[in-house]
Amino acid sequence: MYFNIILDTIVFFIAFFGMEGAARLMHKYVMHGFLWSIHKDHHIDMGHKFQRNNLFGLFFASISVAFFVTWAKTGNTVFASAGLGMAMYGLANLVVHDMIMHNSYLHLRDRKHSKYVTNLIAVHNMHHQNDGKNKGVNWGFLFYIPRIDVPPTLPKKR
Question: Where would you find the membrane-spanning parts of this chain (predicted)?
Answer without folding.
Answer: 6-26, 55-72, 78-96
